[in-house]
Design goal:
The chain is α+β, with helices and mostly antiparallel strands and 156 residues long. The chain has 3 helices and 11 strands.
């Protein structure tokens, strides 16, 4: 298991790599389990980081491409960019759905309860960043049905 210093170093390398690739990708869930969102924010890319190795998953959960995270100067960025582009196009990635208030830029980021002790009468909490992700559109639709007082929409 990596210590906090190692995690911080690894994430610094990952952030530098994703920035240098300049593909419009977004990193979420830092620091411990970073995940990558597509440029349009509609897909969770099928990849993961284990210690200092960045794995891009192929078909059947096997590894399509692996990259050792290190200082950006020691990485052939053109080769990596080509591998990323090919991987993004070649494989299906996990479609995700978010819920927001229509025309506001505010996403559902969690739920709170009027009765906090018994966890009764929930209501959504909104923010501009870090939305809840739904992997099933039916689950997202059930949230819309439950909270009809809000002008909620599903972002696909």
């Amino acid at each position: 298991m990596m210590n906090e210093e190692g995690i911080s170093e690894r994430n610094g390398y990952l952030i530098a790599l994703i920035s240098e690739l300049n593909l419009g990708l977004h990193i979420i869930d830092l620091p411990h389990k970073p995940r990558i969102l597509s440029k349009d924010g509609k897909s969770l890319l099928r990849c993961y980081v284990h210690n200092f190795t960045f794995h891009l998953k192929g078909a059947n959960e096997d590894s399509y491409y692996q990259l050792k995270l290190k200082p950006i100067e020691r990485i052939n960025i053109d080769e990596v960019r080509n591998a990323f582009n090919e991987w993004i196009e070649m494989f299906e990635h996990t479609e995700i759905f978010t819920i927001s208030i229509k025309d506001s830029g505010l996403f559902v980021t969690g739920f709170n309860h009027h009765n906090k002790i018994l966890k009764k009468n929930p209501y959504p909490v909104f923010a501009r960043y870090d939305p809840l992700f739904y992997y099933d559109v039916k689950r997202a639709e059930s949230i819309l049905e439950k909270f009809t007082d809000y002008n909620l929409i599903i972002n696909q």
